[in-house]
From TrEMBL:
It comes from the Eukaryota. Signal peptide: none annotated. This is carnosine N-methyltransferase. Belongs to the carnosine N-methyltransferase family. Its EC number is 2.1.1.22.
Amino acid sequence: MDEESAWSGLENGIEDQEELHVIYRTLDSYQQYAKIAHFQCTHLRRQAFYALPRAHWQRLAAPPFNYLETLDKVDDAIESNAELARIIFRNGLDMFHIGVPSESGGGRSLALPPEWNGSAKPGDVEKARSTLRQFYRDWSAEGAREREACFGPVMRAIAAERAARGPDAPPLKVLVPGAGLGRLVFELCRAGCDAEGNEISYHQLLASSYILNCCPRAGHHTIYPWIHTFSNHKTRANHLRGYAVPDVHCASELTRTEEVEGRPVGTMSMSAADFLCLYAQEDRADAYDAVASVFFLDTAPNLIRYLETIFHCLKPGGILVNIGPLLWHFEGRVWDRDEHDDVSTEGGHSRDISGIADPGNFELTNEEVMALVKDIGFEVLEHETGIEAPYILDTESMLQTSYRASAWVARKPAAPANATTTTAPIDT
């Protein structure tokens, strides 16, 4: 992606002060990662260790346990993770043109405004930590198994759609909502599609922007995804195992695909926005040949809104390719009507709130989801359940958990012959 236009919608800066505060806290969470990880992972353990009876901690400090050496190695691993976190932080400051007056009096230096240092909330820091771990899944060679489980069905469905349209058809325009760290967007681009990712999380956006646009080479960083917990490790070697990321340098790989393999690549872009707010707009109607939904639909508080929006932005005859579990992200959320007492309603429906912050939520079974997909107007072409789909899984851990995902392809009906198709914007 062109670095100057890596995220659409941010060219003129951030005017919304509340959103700017979210960006500051997100940046600060990457800045604070090392300090908090050292405190939680090793400092507190050293305190607990020396609280043991002297004979006991001395036994554990000696071979073959070498517990204190283990804590030192965890500290080193945290610093390796923190190197990536600090680069994401600095890259974000540069991207948003955030700085403070230079002490030398000339210009500005990249830094958070002083009042925002230390502003990240515990949830912000946890998101930074989980994003660093996600590099294992999306951008390490060892994460290829997980990527194949989830991206494989999508790539095959997209390839089949391209083949059905013939060799002279233009590149498919594919939307990837909930694009995360951008790996699927990159793979679709490498396969010749014009791929557009959408992501609302600034933690993910900052990290994906760096890895797609700025990382200088493959294997530039080493991450240690398993160090934040000490439970269920069979061996200390696996607990402390590091992984080189990224496994490919994006620009070099796209060049190699074209020049060595002789295959044309597509384009890729990323939008930073609430999926519902952006893609329900009238100018997004009938705009995409395919929507690739990977571990995304269960992030919906209101799945009807998600499916209506996807239906709205797909071209007639376009396909929705979905794979994922149903870990409903808003399960248990309680809507406080007092917080929305200024919302006018008509027939019991909200008229003034749009986006993922809409009041109300519900959860469906997989069977009910498929019924809703059809009720929205899609034609279900394929449906498979029970697909093994691990998510940031340590395969050497004593605890093995994996999703049994549902995968399906659904088509928006093609426009009748000699008919003019117009899609009304979603009521927001």
